[in-house]
Amino acid sequence: MSDSLERANEMDAPLQQLKQKIDAEPAPRRGGSFSGGLSLLLVLALGAAAGAGGYWLWPQWQSLQQQTEILQQNQQRLTEQSSQQLDSSKLLQQQLQTQQQQRLAQLEQNLQQQQQQLAAQNQAQIQALRQLVQERDSAPPRHWLLAEIEYLLQLAAQKVWLEQDFATARALLTNADEKLLKLDDPSLLPVRQAIATDLEQLERFHQPDLSRVHIQLQQMRQLSMTLPLKQQQQTEQVAAAPGTELSNWRATLSYYWQQSWSKLIRVRTAVPEDYFSLTTEQQLMLRVSLNQQLLLAELAAMQHQPQVYAAALQQAADQLQRYFNSDDAGVLKLSSELAALAAVDVAVATASPLTALAQLQQYQQQLTESSL
After folding, report:
1. Among candidate residues 182, 184, 177, the one with its CA nearest the CA of residue 198
2. Which residues, if any, are the signal sequence (predicted)?
3. Cα separation of 315 and 322, whole Å?
4. Could you tell me if 217 and 294 are in contact, meaning their C-beta atoms sit under 8 angstroms apart?
5. Is residue 164 part of a domain?
6. Are 371 and 160 in contact (CB under 8 A)?
7. Which residues constitute the domain of residue 319?
8. pLDDT digits (tens, 9 = 90+) for 226-259
9. Beta carbons within 8 Å of 72's beta carbon, 6+ residues apart
10. Do residues 198 and 148 share a domain?
């Protein structure tokens, strides 16, 4: 309500000013009353039009001014926000750059530390190698010979326990004893005595040549497939025909009766020679059976099973004597080889531990303690 009164007062203000001006002017002359009235009407009309226009345009002008102020305020706010965002982005960018620089500096520092550590390690390794080379260069030949002798004794012990190779172990012990002889040191006499004891122990073991046994059995298997078997043809005994005299009618009747029935049914007692008449399949089965026994003996020899080895050779010898032709040279040769192989002992020989290596290590320990 107060706003409408204020607006009405503002709109009436120009009219009051115009009335004051008119009142201030001198009164017109009588001759110009018509023109003066017309002028007064025009002025009043213009004032009324101006008042009406002001009354209609004033709210729009105020709203336009308010919108302009709002726009200015919004623009100012946008400007402030953009400046704040720009400042925050600059600050964030500076922080990121600072963090990246710090990380790069930390990485460079770590890399430098690692390089320094690697350089120090390499330097220490080089120094250790130099010292080792100097020690080896300055070491007397005696130490080199002792190290070589120790290696030979270790290898001999491995040959005895791991491979059961007594011949190689004896050769290694002999070589070590020769090198000890070159040193000509009385303090090494216990080591040489231990080597002599080990050599005497190994001399008692005579390991058979299993490779040769394997080759012989393989050749015998090949020969067994070509050996001749015993073959005998049974000759039938034909009874003599009796005479034609009438007095021998009983014998004649019995003879013809037996001849007639013998062609239909042959009944007789079995004899050991019945198996000599064998078919082709039976002959092949006998040869294959002999071959299998020889193969079993071969496997038992390679696996150090003396009982299985002896049983397989005995079975093969029995089959050879019973079913094969004993007059053939191949059968005789195979029989003699079986007898020779049966005398071979394929059991694993067990030896006591070698004492020379422990004696040498004890001597080296005494040298180290005396040098300290």
Report:
1. 177
2. none
3. 11
4. yes
5. yes
6. no
7. 209-230+277-348
8. 888 876 444 444 455 555 665 667 777 777 777 6
9. none
10. yes
